Amino acid sequence: MRSSLLLLTGLLSAPAFAQQAPKKPLDHSVYDQWQSVAGQRISHNGKYVLFQVKPQQGDGTLYLKTAGNQTLRQISRGDSAVFSADSKYAVFSISPRYQDVRQARIKKKKPDQMPKDSLGIYGLSTGKLTKYADVKSFQLAEEGTVLAFLATKPLLKDTLKKAPVDTVKKITDKLLETQKGGAILTILNLEKGQPRTFEAVTDYKVSKSGNKVAFAVAAPKGNKTVRSGLFVFDVATGNLRQLSAGKGTYKNLAFDDAGKQLAFTAEKYPEKALSKPFTLYYSDFADSARVLLAPSANGLKKGWSPSGFGKVLFSENGEKLFFGTAPDLIPQDTTLVEFEHAKLDIWNYKDDYLQPMQLKNLKKELQRSYLAVAYPKHGGKYIQLADEYLQDAYMADKKNAEYVLAVTDTANRVAMQWQGNTMKRAYLVSTRTGERVAINPKGSKSRFQLSPGGQYAIWYDYDAKGWFAYSVANRKTINLTAKAKVDFTDEENDSPTDPQPYGIAAWTKNDDAVLLYDRYDIWKVDPKTGAASNFTNGVGRQQKLRFRYEIPVAKQDFIEPKDELWLQVQDETTKQWGYYKKNITSTKAPQRVTLVPMAYSQLMQAKNADVFLYTKTSVQNPADLYVSRNLQKETKLSNINPQQKDYNWFTAELVHWTTPKGYAATGVLYKPENFDPNKKYPMVAYFYEKVSDGLYRYNAPAPTPSRLDIAMFASNGYLVFTPDISYTIGEPGASAVEFVNSGVEALKKNSWVDGAHIGIQGQSWGGYQVAYLITQTPMYAAAWAGAPVVNMTSAYGGIRWESGMSRQFQYERTQSRLGATLWENQDLYIRNSPLFYLPKVETPVVIMANDADGAVPWYQGIEMFTDLRRLNKPVWLLQYNGEAHNLVKRENRKDISIRELQFFDHYLKGAPAPVWLERGVPAVEKGRNWGLETSTSSVR
Length: 940
Hints:
By secondary structure, the protein is of the alpha+beta class. It has 16 helices and 56 strands.
């Protein structure tokens, strides 16, 4: 079918043609100053708001405001801010000046000589600001006004970070290291303002109400005035008690919700001991802490102990104490001479996990613990809930429920190599008896969850194609979606794996109902009977609106019986965002509140008031912060990036066309703000799967990890085209040709597109498609491929080093979409591999392939470079040393951003070539010359 193009007549913003001073284009010097809003919070009473305005690099500002936008205080470098439960105080850290940290790094200062954080306390009604210097961390009572903070202390040498991954000894030595080097702990009641300080503190915990603070002390050697041990401070009375004595390591301090019980783990062995198992301690403050479970105690497996790495926590009612147990670490044989023994990894086909995955997870596995429960008020009864077979166990939100959910994939892990996931069996395990109740004895590829109240286990079954719930009370399985007669999985799935479910929105109180998503609507389902009703009354599917919901109140586990639900929506056709609302008990259709050509964040609601905090953005408007009671009358709290008005910005519009095979296609076209339809513009196409839902996303100019900086290119006179790509399984390369090339061809029909100067850019999966596209057409004048796979035959059996997993699942089941093994359909792998068609390439191309890439094998970029070089094709490879799949270091991101614009400017605009393009940078000049200049005379 012949391609056709339709540009939407309603643009996001029409370009202005009035006579005015021309705006300057963005350049690479603007990055650091560009701002974003972060760390926003609203007080429980809804009267106060705090947020940070942070530049990309440099010192940010913390703003403390009323909900009416009255500025109470601006705190330079304020960070990690929280409100007190009574909405009277704001507490925050104050970071050192960026320039001070920079200078210290330049001078190679040691960690204990680096500039330190401070702590700030601001009285919202009094306006009083109090600061404390050199503070490492702080804790504010969740439901009180008690604050505890720990001073900075010298950092211990971290052998773990430097230890080779192939030595268990160095890791276990670190895990066995006794805590030392404590610092001063300050405890302060914000209402009374009389601080108490304690020396040599290594760890601390504030109770929920703030009535008590527990802390561990490691007395310095030779200090006879400080006692090592575990202490508790009663804030009301000012009394200090030592609950446990002795040097050692105290960890996992945990209060119950009432602040009447405390538990912790500790080991008190000599510092050079080769084995240091932990003991679980408990106190109700009537006396010293007592041993609740000792190493190798009755009931524990032989050679097992309470874990120092498992979390310790009480149930909400204070009756149960959950903790972890684990096998004791095997002591190292100190008689072995290291240089006389081989160092190697042994790969065995029977291993559950490949060796790289085992090594990647080595620290995690050495710290693995298995959930257990004890009843300290009832004689300390202990029950093991998880073990080597049932490794992962999950509690209901309040932790009062009788059963926990435990999941295992034991004996099914090898298939992860090509499936990408595993068959799992789920069990309910009784916290009273340890009884295990099998939920799905046959196993399934499901993700199991426990309802907030613990009355149901819920999962999506891929084989039965429905959501299921298992009732704890009657031990029956209910199909939750059989009566709904709609698909609850991805209707647009175009990969050879099972379509993924759209997910769970939330549960109502007492587990009475669960809200499930289909593509558009939300369904309210009774887990007892499976009775399902369309909560959004079918409005979503009728109007192509995608309804989604997230509980807006922090730490609220379920929907209350009379809650008004604010439902976020996106119009699938126009890409506009907004909100509808509906009471959880209502049967009426949801009421539209707002639907506008902007994008909304999720709402954040005050705990005790109907006041909402959110950001709102569009292509022209950065994500500023707003507060409102109804999302119609709103107050703007921030005004970031005012400098944007001085720069030539850009517009965005949806474009539609029909592909050669007759598929309806969609993309986004970005134009310079000063776009003139009487001129011709070069164009760069950037793509990665589907991106048009981000039509109203604000694209700030920022140094790129290797993607295309849309703001920079559009501001500098480029059209930027981002087409959505739909895939035919087995034909990922041809699918890119079908959608990208046809979209470009359709746009070329416009007189303002310079068809002779079009480039393409992609990173990762997009990089692969760039490599493939330039083997299929000479249409592109320049191409940039970041971390591309070019040879699927060699990449198929490789390793994703960041996870240690084999890459086979990616080709057989997920993004690469081949749907077959290499030996089942060798031609498929060859046909989709750009490597085998490189002689056809006529397009100059830059490749980024980094030597620490953990996703795509580095040698893929090398294969592409060396083969194109062999063919005498114009090709360059950028290898950032020690860098990942996507660039992480900001200096490297800035560097590649400059090179990317230079490259396209040269080939699409005729700008002079920089030295790195023209002649390269020899290794002997590395670190002295970066080749960014355009004049070769200035290089040497």
